[in-house]
C-alpha cells in the first residue's frame, strides 16, 4: 500500500497552442517537505492552479490521499484538504490580522445565522474557540501581539506569514506555498524557514513549496522537482538535484 499523500499522473495543461505543463509526475509522502523549483515561466504556479482546481487539466490527473481531486472545484478541493498561499499576497486588507485567520477557520467551526443574530450560547462558545485557535496559529508566526492590527498595516514579510497562518486555519492535509520568501530580507527568510519546519513537525503537515531562494530550498526541502519549459528536468534528493549539471545550466541560461 502506498503512503503517498499526493500523486500526479501525467498532469498537463495547454493554453491555446502553448503546453504550459506536460507529463507532470510527482509523488509526495505524508509529512514531506518538498520543493518545486525552476526558472521564471517554467509552469510552477500553473501546477498549483491545477492542484487547487483553479485550472482544469487537459491531460492526466492528481490524487490526494487516494482520492482523485482533478475535476473538482476549488472549494471542494479546499474541503478535501489542500490549502495554498499566492505568489502575490491575497489578504483581506481591511480586516484585522485575527479575522483574516478566522476566515480560514470557517471550514471547521460552524454556527448558524440565527445563532449569530440571537447571540446564543453556541455562538459565544464557537467564537471563543475560534479566537483561541486563531491566536494559537498567529503565535506560531510571532504575530499574536499584532492580532488586532489591520492586515494592511503589517509589514510585507509579516503579511506573507499571515497568509500561511490563514491557509493553516483550514486544517489542510497538504499546504502549497508559492514563493513564501519572496520580498523577505535574510532575517525574515531565516525565521520563515524555522516556521515552516515547525509547522511540518508540530502539525504533521505535508508541504509543497515553490521557491527561488536556493538557500531556503536546500535548507528545508528533502526532495525537489525542477521544472523547465513545463517539463520535469530533474527530480530527487535536494543536494543531488541542485548539483546536476543540467539543472545548473537551466538556471544559468535564464
Ligand atoms: N491562464 C493562462 N493563459 C495563458 N497562459 C498562461 C496562463 N497561466 C499561465 N500561463 C503561461 O504558462 C507558463 C507558466 O507560467 P507560470 O506562472 O506557471 O510560471 P512560474 O513557473 O510560476 O513562473 P514564475 O517563477 O515567474 O512565477 C507561462 O508561459 C505563462 O505565460
Ligand atoms: Mg509563479
Short description, anyone?
The chain is α/β, with parallel strands linked by helices and 254 residues long. Helix content is 40%, strand content 25%. It has a 6-stranded mixed sheet, with helices on both faces.
Secondary-structure map:
Elements: E1 4-15, E2 18-29, E3 33-37, H1 44-51, E4 59-64, E5 67-68, H2 74-80, E6 82-84, H3 97-105, H4 113-118, H5 121-140, H6 156-169, E7 174-178, H7 186-203, E8 206-210, H8 214-220, E9 223-228, E10 231-237, H9 238-242, H10 245-252
Parallel strand pairs: 3-8, 3-9, 6-7, 7-8
Antiparallel strand pairs: 1-2, 1-4, 4-5, 9-10
Adenosine-5'-triphosphate is lined by residues 15, 20, 38, 40-46, 87.
Q: How does this structure look, described?
A:
- This protein is α/β, with parallel strands linked by helices.
- The protein folds into two domains: 1-81 and 172-254, P-loop containing nucleotide triphosphate hydrolases (Rossmann fold, 3-Layer(aba) Sandwich); 90-170, no CATH class.
- It contains ten helices and ten strands.
- The chain has helices spanning 44-51, 74-80, 97-105, 113-118, 121-140, 156-169, 186-203, 214-220, 238-242, 245-252, and strands at 4-15, 18-29, 33-37, 59-64, 67-68, 82-84, 174-178, 206-210, 223-228, 231-237.
- Helix 3 (97-105) packs across helix 5, helix 3 (97-105) runs parallel beside helix 6 (156-169) and helix 5 (121-140) crosses helix 6.
- It is globular, with a radius of gyration of 19 Å.
- The model has no long low-confidence stretch (mean pLDDT 93).
- Magnesium ion binds next to helix 1.
- Residues 44-45, 87 line the site of magnesium ion (MG).
Amino acid at each position: 500500500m502506498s503512503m503517498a499523500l499526493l500523486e500526479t499522473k501525467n498532469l498537463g495543461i495547454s493554453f491555446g497552442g502553448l503546453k504550459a505543463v506536460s507529463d507532470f509526475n510527482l509523488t509526495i509522502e505524508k509529512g514531506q517537505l518538498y520543493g518545486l523549483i525552476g526558472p521564471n515561466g517554467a509552469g510552477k504556479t500553473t501546477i498549483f492552479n491545477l492542484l487547487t482546481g483553479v485550472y482544469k487539466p487537459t491531460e492526466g490527473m492528481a490524487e490526494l490521499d487516494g482520492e482523485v481531486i482533478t475535476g473538482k472545484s476549488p472549494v471542494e478541493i479546499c474541503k478535501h484538504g489542500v490549502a495554498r498561499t499566492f505568489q502575490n499576497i491575497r489578504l483581506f486588507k481591511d480586516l484585522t490580522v485575527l479575522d483574516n485567520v478566522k476566515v480560514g477557520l470557517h471550514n471547521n467551526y460552524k454556527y448558524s445565522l440565527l445563532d449569530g443574530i440571537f447571540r446564543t450560547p453556541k455562538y459565544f462558545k464557537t467564537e471563543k474557540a475560534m479566537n483561541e485557535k486563531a491566536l494559537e496559529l498567529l503565535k506560531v508566526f510571532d504575530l499574536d501581539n499584532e492580532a488586532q492590527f489591520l492586515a494592511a498595516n503589517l509589514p510585507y514579510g509579516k503579511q506573507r506569514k499571515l497568509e500561511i497562518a490563514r491557509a493553516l486555519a483550514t486544517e489542510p492535509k497538504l499546504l502549497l506555498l508559492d514563493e513564501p520568501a519572496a520580498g523577505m530580507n535574510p532575517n525574515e527568510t531565516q525565521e520563515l524557514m524555522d516556521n515552516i519546519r515547525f509547522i511540518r513537525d508540530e502539525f504533521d503537515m505535508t508541504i509543497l513549496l515553490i521557491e527561488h531562494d536556493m538557500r531556503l530550498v536546500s535548507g528545508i526541502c528533502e526532495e525537489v522537482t525542477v521544472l523547465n519549459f513545463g517539463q520535469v528536468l530533474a527530480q530527487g534528493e535536494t543536494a543531488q538535484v541542485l548539483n546536476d549539471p543540467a539543472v545548473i545550466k537551466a538556471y544559468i541560461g535564464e
